[in-house]
Design goal:
Elements (H helix, E strand, L loop, with lengths): L9 E5 L4 H12 L3 E6 L12 E2 L2 H6 L4 E4 L6 H11 L3 E4 L6 H14 L2 E3 L5 E4 L3 E4 L8 E8 L3 H12 L4 E6 L10 H10 L5 E7 L4 H12 L4 E6 L8 E2 L1 E5 L7 H11 L2 E3 L5 H17 L1
Parallel strand pairs: 1-2, 1-4, 2-3, 4-5, 5-6, 9-10, 9-11, 11-12, 12-15
Antiparallel strand pairs: 7-8, 7-10, 13-14
């Protein structure tokens, strides 16, 4: 099992005009993803063997349920609105630097249609050895029982690589994106991991700024029975200083490190304050879970 995407999930790609995107599509096929094809991209090299559709309705008729967007920042809104209007169930926006007003329009359209929006500026979703929709790769992870939810991709790549070295695998990893205006957040995804029979432990990789982590802590306290390991980056960032991502900024004491860590602790999460301790702590959590299962 997994969450959001699996072996039978049909995925269509938008914005396939570059060699980088073609490479991502070929990686998707190589890991077993059900790649239905691409929409509105002109000609695709014959050797790539990717079907091309004129619109999203045609792709849906061919089995597409999820649309993955690589389009340029000023083009992606129109393409996403077309997919939502056509009836796509989930849209994943990998595009960075989407204008805030465009992101607001996309989110409003998705909410009205009942479409799940992941992103903008997401690194995507990966269910190990089942389905890939984004930049995460099976090369740096293995299948297992850890669910991961993160904002950006960079910190997650490090965690995935160290987990693989320790023989720990994932069920699904989801990047919600670090932008201040986005679709689903941690709080929306945690209950899905709670219900997923493959997932035994959840890792939440947070960062300063906004209220996403505090909202997630409320869900951990009220809905999660599975153990959650929580890490928040930005411990030493000062008030008013931006930290990498657009949404990672503390203003007037709101969104700070201390409030997030305190919220996680009060919710019962296992809090790790140093990056180097994430995977060793996860190893110990797995051992404890194995002992409980054997008892």
């Amino acid at each position: 099992m997994s969450i959001l995407i699996g072996r039978t999930t049909g995925i269509v790609v938008s914005g396939i005009g570059s060699s980088m995107v073609l490479r991502q599509c070929n990686e998707m096929k190589a890991c077993g993803t059900k790649l239905v094809g691409a929409v509105g991209c002109g000609q695709v090299p014959h050797e790539d063997n990717i079907d091309v559709y004129t619109d999203f309705r045609s792709a849906i008729m061919a089995g597409a349920e999820v649309a993955l967007f690589f389009n340029d920042p000023f083009d992606v809104k129109q393409r996403m609105l077309e997919a939502i209007a056509a009836g796509i169930k989930m849209v994943i926006c990998l595009t960075e630097f989407v204008p805030v007003h465009d992101a607001l329009e996309i989110r409003e359209a998705a909410n009205r249609a009942g479409t799940m929006l992941i992103g903008p500026n997401s690194s995507g979703v990966l269910s190990a050895l089942q389905s890939k929709a984004g930049y995460f790769s099976d090369e740096i992870c293995m299948p297992g029982s850890v669910g991961i939810v993160t904002k950006g991709g960079s910190i997650a790549y490090g965690v995935l690589s160290e987990m693989k070295c320790e023989g720990l695998g994932i069920s699904t990893i989801v990047s919600v994106g670090p932008d201040p205006v986005k679709g689903v957040g941690y709080a929306d995804l945690l209950p899905l991991f709670e219900k997923d029979p493959q997932t035994r432990i959840v890792v939440l990789l947070g960062e300063i700024g906004g209220r996403d982590e505090e909202d997630a802590a409320a869900v951990i306290a009220s809905q999660m029975t599975k153990p959650v390991l929580a890490y928040t980056s930005g411990k030493y960032v000062e008030d008013g200083q931006s930290f990498g991502h657009a949404g990672a900024i503390i203003r007037n004491g709101i969104g700070g490190y201390a409030s997030k860590v305190d919220a996680f602790r009060r919710a019962g999460a296992i809090v790790v304050e140093a990056f180097k301790d994430i995977v060793p702590t996860l190893v110990e959590m797995h051992r404890s879970a194995d002992k409980e299962s054997a008892a």
